[in-house]
Amino acid sequence: MLTSLRTRLFASYVFLVLVLLAVIGVALLLIFNTRPAPPEPTLQRLSALALSTNLREIVRDSGFSLIRPTQRDFEALVAQFDATAEERQVRLLFVNLNTDSVLYDSAGLYELGASFNAEVGAYTFPAAIARGMALPIEAVRGTFSDARGDWLFVGVEGIRQ
Question: Is the pLDDT of residue 92 over 50?
Answer without folding.
Answer: yes
